Amino acid sequence: MTGFARRESSGPWGTLVCELRSVNHRFLETGFRLPEELRPAEGELRQRLAQEVRRGKVDCSMTYRPGQAAAASLEVDMAALERLAARIGELGRAYPAGTVNLLEVLRWPGILKDQSVAGEELLAAALALFEAAVADLCAARCREGGKLREVLEQRCAALEVLVKQVQARLPEVQARLTARVRERIQELAAGADPERLEQEIALLLQRLDVDEELERLTGHISEVRRVLTGNEPAGRRLDFLMQELNREANTLSSKSQDLETTRCAVDMKVLIEQMREQVQNIE
């Protein structure tokens, strides 16, 4: 499901900004872009996100701007700088035309140290900010989910109408089919055993009977509604139900001996495909 959230927090340690973006995805896939100071917290952030979001591709971007006091106390990690300078020297000998930008060197992860920032304080602020952003993201996804539920409910109601139309036509279709089969058999086998004839007609009608498919369609529609009103993640279960609905609609179409019933089956498959596309967006 799609969603966006942005939160900002400031303190003696500086300013933190957290942005979360969510798009549709079959499973949960997360991506994090964190400042160097917060990289050790990535595992915990992933875990907290997974507790609230079960499905979707979620990108988290967090930026950190140190405060004035923090910026004034920045120090260079000379050991890290010497190691980096050695590698730059090797590259300079291999590629004499290359130039080195000192500002870019200072931006290399681990070169600058910030002695003024209390790591625990910054981490606690980042976690609190992240949780607030996740709550906003979930709220946005819930609002979208409510709209999707309305759309799916409308499709379920339309499916029910089609099922009832087919059920209403069954007696007429069965009577017409029985009469047609009897006429055909009498033409091909005059003087056939009437009892045997009735048995063959009964077997034929049984093979073409769609009562079971209509009952399963009704049951699946009820299950879709039950899942939509639940509090558990519903995307995968709904995806499975769409497959079952489509299976029953295909069987109904293949058994149909009536043009109107065939049209209803086609309309059912169109509605089910529309539902299936929407279900891919549901957590």
Describe the structure.
With 283 residues, the chain is of the alpha+beta class. Among the domains are: 74-114, no CATH class; 144-279, Up-down Bundle (Butyryl-CoA Dehydrogenase, subunit A, domain 3). It has helices at residues 42-52, 68-72, 78-94, 102-106, 119-188, 194-208, 211-228, 235-255, 259-279, and strands at 3-11, 14-23, 28-33, 56-66, 74-76, 112-114. Helix 5 packs antiparallel against helix 7 (211-228). The chain starts with a strand and ends with a helix.
Short description:
With 283 residues, the protein is an alpha+beta fold.
Identify the strand order in the major beta sheet.
Answer: 1-2-4-3
Beta-strand percentage range:
5-15%
* CA-atom Rg in angstroms: 33 Å
Describe the sheet with the most strands.
4 strands, mixed
In the predicted model, the low-confidence regions spanning at least 5 consecutive residues are: none
Number of strands: 6
H and E string: EEEHEHEHHEHHHHH
Roughly how many Å apart are the termini? 7 Å
- Structural category is alpha+beta
Q: State the CATH topology of the domain at 144-279.
A: Butyryl-CoA Dehydrogenase, subunit A, domain 3
Q: Any idea what the CATH architecture of the domain at 144-279 is?
A: Up-down Bundle
Q: Give the count of helical stretches.
A: 9
Text of the CATH class of the domain at 144-279? Mainly Alpha
The whole-number mean of residue pLDDT values reads 81
Question: Helicity range of the residues?
Answer: 55-70%
Principal-axes geometry comes out as: elongated
